[in-house]
Amino acid sequence: MMRRAILFAFVVLAGASAAAAAAEPRATILSYGRFETRRTGEIEKSDRTASGELQSVSDHRLLQQTDEIVGQLGNAFGFDLKLENFPEGPATLTIRTHHPPITNPKTGRTMTVSEYDWTASQRDNVYFGYSFDHGWEIAEGVWTKQIVYKGRVIAEKKFKIVVPLN
């Protein structure tokens, strides 16, 4: 009888743990790859990014679903997300990109991680990406984009950046 009670308690606790994990805020990657974007708003200063700048994107369109991106001026890559199980209201996320060493010639600073905080008010079709706006930003290798919520990585995607020979 005691074994049944212990087994029953274990099953109940396991079910409660699974339900709690299912209710945790999470992000599902809907699409990823090379995007066409339309930027809006003012360029903002950001000392936690290699370029030192951020600019909002008002519209985006997937051009090619791929995890291999040509390192070329103007190319933008990233992913669309669906945010699930978040509390009502805006959610503050940290957008983090691990990349090969990039040296900003204006500041002389070399970085391997660029990140910024972003407040997301919508929950579906949320785009986060990176655009090669300066030649010095293009670094061949693996780039990992992460979405962090309250210290926990809730979405991650690796991209391989390749630089053409010419």
Distance between the termini: 76 Å
Strand coverage percent:
over 45%
Please compute the radius of gyration using only Cα atoms: 20 Å
Structural class by SSE content: mainly beta
Number of strands: 9
Please state the overall shape, judged from the principal axes of the Cα atoms: globular
Total helical elements? 1
Helix content: 10-25%
Tell me about this structure.
With 166 residues, the protein is mostly beta strands. The chain has one helix and nine strands. The protein has one helix at 2-22; strands spanning 26-45, 53-64, 68-70, 76-84, 91-103, 110-120, 124-131, 141-149, 152-162. The protein has a five-stranded mixed β-sheet, with no helix packed on it. Strands 2-1-4-7 form a four-stranded antiparallel β-sheet, with no helix packed on it. Strand 1 (26-45) and strand 2 form a beta hairpin. The longest helix has 21 residues, at 2-22. It is globular, with a radius of gyration of 20 Å. The model has no long low-confidence stretch (mean pLDDT 88).
Summarize the model shown.
It contains one helix and nine strands, in the order H-E-E-E-E-E-E-E-E-E. It has one helix spanning 2-22, and strands at 26-45, 53-64, 68-70, 76-84, 91-103, 110-120, 124-131, 141-149, 152-162.
List the helices and strands and how they pair.
Elements: H1 2-22, E1 26-45, E2 53-64, E3 68-70, E4 76-84, E5 91-103, E6 110-120, E7 124-131, E8 141-149, E9 152-162
Parallel strand pairs: 3-9
Antiparallel strand pairs: 1-2, 1-4, 4-7, 5-6, 5-8, 8-9
